[in-house]
Amino acid sequence: MTVTTGAAVPRRIIRRGTAFRDAGPPVALVVIFAVFAALSPQFRSIANVQNIVDAAAVLAVVTCGITFVLMMGSIDLSSAGVMGASALTVSLLVANNRNDNDLGLLGIAVAVAMGCAFGFLSGLALVTLKVPSFMATLGVSAIGLGVATLMFAGVQPNISDVMLKSWAIERFLGLSYLTWIAAACILAGWLIQRYTRLGRYAYAIGGAEEVLTLSGVRVKPYKVAVFTLAGAFYGLAGVMVTSQLGAGLVQAGNGYDFSAITAAVVGGTLLTGGRGGILHSAVGVLLVMVLTNGLVQVGVSPYWQGGVEGLIVVAAVAAAVIPQRRRNQVVK
Fold it and tell me: Which of 18, 38, 72, 146 lies in the 20 to 30 Å Cα band around 103?
């Protein structure tokens, strides 16, 4: 006769509950896609599916960055400003109508490096000045928008760089180059999360920062590194938006901060940290984009989309927090 200890049963229940929560977003994605496919023949066309995936490219890259921050239990609102500054930087460094620069890939690298610098500034403000993450990153976003406005100087820089413009125009296997860049970012983010110390510690900081500190790990450098990594993703996203628009705009990152948080949370990455990850957030991005596209296809006004995103965030956070609250009550 096998005796099951009292501790083993809760562990099994927790594992089953975690597996159920992880399966929830993919199941929801399939169900929502099936519903819209039944309601609209246009929605289920190959061309529309390609449009959905292509439209998700920039958001996926931004979400990769914000996912690492959320895993630590922090909030990052800097993406709009960082993307604006990076967009203006790359548009003025590659071939354009404002100056004689034609740096090509070097200009793109500088724009991504600028994103890293803004991310580093956010992390530094968090760990040295003890400013809450949402306030520190909101301030950095304002700085980024200010820098972008100065570079804009009242004249829109239009890019003529063939390589950068081809990212949004040329296709490989039916998808734009931007989509393949986003897929590479998701893969890179997953590898960092899974196989590097930075990814593991980001999880650990969100789950139990005090325990990690007591074990002798210097947490602050890793926090700064995570924000710097997130800034790199935002910088690349700014370059991608510039490719789409064919010009550098201060407002290149408008709305992406909230949409990225929505996608990450819907995919299963907790705002309190310690759960979720890149693949979860990637599913969340697809879920948000399928829902947005499907609402348009069935005739729902685009003006309702922001409200729908807000309701999704509230529902997703509630679904994640309620089980934790119940578990805490049992412990108490």
Answer: 146
